[in-house]
Every structure is written in structure tokens, then in C-alpha cells.
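Task 17 of the worksheet. Students: predict the tertiary structure of the chain below and write it out as C-alpha cells. Keep your answer in the requested format; marks are given for formatting as well as content.
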Amino acid sequence: MSPSPVLPPPPVSVVGIGADGWSGLSGGAREALREAEVVIGGARQLDLLPPECAGVRVAWPSPLRPAVPRLLAEHRERRIAVLASGDPMFYGIGRALAEELGPEALRVLPHPSSVSYACARLGWPLEDTEVVTLVGRPVSRLAVSLHEGRRLLALSADASTPATVAALLTAHGFGPSRMRVLEQLGSEAEAYVEGVAESWAHAPGDRLNVIAIDCRASADALRLGAVPGLPDEAYEHDGQLTKRHIRAATLGALAPAPGELLWDVGGGSGSIAIEWMRTHASCRAVSVERDPARAQRIARNADRLGVPGLKVVTGPAPSSLSELSELSELDVPDAVFIGGGLTAPGLLDACWEALRPGGRLVANTVTLESEALLAERYRAYGGELTRLAVAHAVPVGGFTGWRQAMPVTQWSVRKPSPPASLPVPGDRT
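Model answer:
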């Protein structure tokens, strides 16, 4: 007699639940929870279930993400339901479960998200509303989304978040912005308060809240655009700053795309890495800076300009690059920018070796010694060698004349695929 086939475990039901609790669930969601032998969720969510959901209730520990594989393995042979807040696939536990089990092992039953409820209450088109989550993330990441006339929804971490957001808006020149805090959306206890950021005086309310922001800039607010080339005044620096027009040209050569990783070697004030990350929320960057004071300054600039996720490595290059090269394949750089230290022995070769095949390398210099090095590499390896010159109008007595900034020599090149070694200077084979 042939052995009985081994049946796969039943799919994990991922049930979205709102502040309205059991009464707001669909028939299919209720059935999945009744049939579950184990229900995993937050303590608040588990308390929303009635006695007829007889499965063992397991509350997520903190931190949550490392516990996901362990809890799923412990109950693998049982019917599992996981509770999620609102839509499980919108900043919810659904992502972690899909990464752990694969999407084919999940049965996702979404509930309207707090964002959908908020747009319904406000009359805002969902497709025109930017959403920024502040749950488990720095509030400073909201700064990159501040533009005159934009409508934002911020997902709060807790009851104190609205006051923190109001302070950030005011500090960034958006004090006149209108704020509305919508609490317990979808429940009978739904409520909201409103006010202006610069005069926000409401006491903390319910921890379940969403903040709606109508962005309004003050008359003296520094304008920060959505493309590279922010004003130099946006940065704290000691003179080590890639200036605005050169910075815009450099980012154009680096050509950031969503999800890509940049190594910024010789970070200075961090402007290249910061504006790389500002191009898209999924862009990542590592800034390498040997001077500890400058490294701290880079971190402050990144936080103030809305990209607190910028990683800063303090140490000299190329030796400090070795720890980065030992990271996983996902952390192989798609682009490398060298803004200083080109003549350091082995730096250019180390950056080239680390670069992903098909990736881009861009190097800027103002010195003759480094320029000669770039010219040799250009002759050997191709790419583009460019001289960037910028002049600014300045007073000359009672007239106006041009003051020339130091010209910048830029080499940009794409690493071939399959990978090849960077030729030594003079090797044309």
C-alpha cells in the first residue's frame, strides 16, 4: 500500500480588523477567526474578539519582527489566523508574513485602512494624498514630503505624535499648516481635533490616530524642491560641501532609481547621499567620512532634511570600505560617488571592485593631481570626462561682474557586465 501523501499546512489567514472590531468584519473574516485553532495578534486586537473565537490567543511579543518565524513554526500544523490593523498589506504584518512564508501560503482578508477612512472623512482623493508612516520610524522622515499645497496623512506612533509633528512643521517653516487629528476611525468613538501647527495646543488624545496635514509654508521658509540641487543654505557645513549646481550635475550622472544603494565616499556634509535618498523613499545610501565631527554633521543634515535612514560610517577610505563589502548581496552598491581622497592608495580600485556590475561610478575633483588620475582612468576605461565650471554674478564697485568658482573635473563610468577588473593606468588592452 502506497503511503498517504503529506498534506501541506493550511494557509495562514491574515485578517484585517479596525477600531469597530468584530461588528466591522465581513462574513469571511469572521469565519476564518472562528475556525482558527490559534489566533496571533496585538493584545488590543485580540481583546476585540468575542468568546465564539475559541482558538488559543497569542499576543505578539516586542520586538515583533524577530518573533514571526518562531511563532509560525511553533503552530505550523494548526490553523492559524493573524490579526492585522486595517489592511494587512499596507504598512502591516502582511509584508513580514509574505516574506517569511511566501504569498501563496497566505489568505489575506483586508479591512479598510485608516488611510481610506481618513480620506473618506476629509473628502481627499486617495490617489492624490501622500502617506507617511511614523510608526516605529523617526518623525523627521516627514520633512522630505513638506511642499506648499500638498496634502499629507501621517500614521501616528501614539498619542504624543501630533504635538511632535506640529513642532517639526513649525521648525521647517510650515507653521501655518492646518492639522486635523482623526481618532478611532471607523468606530463609534470616532472623533477629531484641528488647529494650526505653530499654535498647536491640544492635549494628547487617543493613541489610535491619523494626522491630516494641509501644507502651508511661511513667507520666509527656505524652499526645498523635489529634485537634486537644494540651496546650499539647507546644509550645515564647514566649507566641505558639493555646491548646488555641481551637486545637481553629479546626481544627474549618478542617476538614482527606486530601491538603489549609493556609497558616498568622502561624505563632507552628506549632500550627495542626502539628495540621492530624497529622490525616492526606497533609495538607500551609506556616507563614508573619516572626520568624526563631519560624520556627526552628516547625520544632523540627514535628519533635518527628512532622510534619517542615511547610514554614516566614520573612518578613512579605503580601509573602512572593507566592512561594507562584507555585507549581503542586497547591500552591493548600485552607484559609488567619490567626493574626496581620490589619491589615497587603492581607493578607486576598492570602489570599483565593490560596485555592482552595470553600476555607475562618479568621481569629482578640483586638484591637478586627482585630475591626472581621472584622466588616466578615462583613457584606459572610457566613460565621460567632464569639466564643470560655474560663475556667479557679484558686485564690482558700482557694477556687476562674474566670479568664477573652482572648476570641477568629473569622471563618470558604468561598470561592464559581466564584471571586469579596472585596468591599470596606461593599459589599453
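Marker's comment: Residues 205 and 261 are 39 Å apart (CA to CA). The two ends are 68 Å apart (CA to CA).
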